């Protein structure tokens, strides 16, 4: 029987759209919860730290992704550096990050739809949107990538419209003289997990490496230009939102559709312009829901192919799509759409992202030492950028520990269950294990 492979349909533009699309929802919701923790000054400091982390991380990640262009992404990097167990933890962390991110996005879609059409209940809209994008992804990567390009372009246009409409209302003096307290370092640390939402899932493009036509050249182009676009949008959204002279930041912190909520204070709740930004917001949320689904389905597929997860998850349909991996992981996400709380989902997703980032950055340092001759089509000239990534990543991890102790306890239980699963499965299927890298080459 002829072996099916993932379909190589991704160009640099399509990969860029998947990367930016997976993240762009972070401009439309999630980050705004930081205003429960600090004021604009604290938010600006937190944003600087997180932005420095993600920019430096993307440069490291681009080198790893071109040296080891596997759908397994961080699983393959950690496995090559530290062995099977680290590979499993990296892959599990990606799944944790993405599977908890998509319900949060879907719930925000429901809030945006309800804001535009109050007759539609938010929970019904959320469930419907989630199911629609599972179906789109089932159709295959080529059609999925085309959808990513379209919805991402509209989402970026929406951020631009929000900036144009909102910038005239910004009170520059008021930005730094708000009556709200910064709450010192605790406020900044508490804000950091929500600022991460501006960039969460940017690494998802690496899971499309095996579907790129020329991954060694396409991945760096897409990642570096993608993070540049995201930084510009994040700063623009933060300034316009916090600086709006009519804004009540405590109210902004409690809504799942902050951009229309801000503009409604200026233009009125029934204004066409407010509705327009809400409409654009749906595209931003849809782009991320869509892009992250691509990411977690490919991660589950790659982990199954390597023996970490049940073999059935690596089955491909006639279009080269890992349908079973997509549907089974989506069912978990759908459960949390029905039962989840957006703020908690955001933080839980950040925990998975942080573990993945720690292992990926550590892999960069280890592979530079243990595999100096490894072909690196994109190569950093020095260790300065990875060092910055390591330091700022440590700050993000400390922020999570300091500000999210209760959720960290729950996350520890989840990781303990995953490790127990790994130990049992490894003994049962030890003879059938295939490394992520070798399976990719096969």
From TrEMBL:
Claim: Lyase is one of the keywords in the record: no
InterPro entries to which the protein is assigned, alphabetical: AA/rel_permease1 (IPR002293), APC_superfamily (IPR050367), EtNH_permease (IPR004757)
Bilayer-spanning residue ranges: 12-31, 43-64, 85-113, 119-138, 145-165, 185-202, 222-242, 272-296, 321-339, 345-367, 379-401, 407-424
Record membrane topology: Multi-pass membrane protein
Signal peptide, first to last residue: none
Domain of life assignment: Bacteria
Record's keyword annotation contains Cell membrane: yes
Main subcellular location: membrane
Protein's cellular compartments: Cell membrane
One Pfam family from the record: AA_permease_2
Alphabetical keyword list: Cell membrane, Membrane, Transmembrane, Transmembrane helix
NCBIfam families: 2A0305
Record-given protein name: Ethanolamine permease
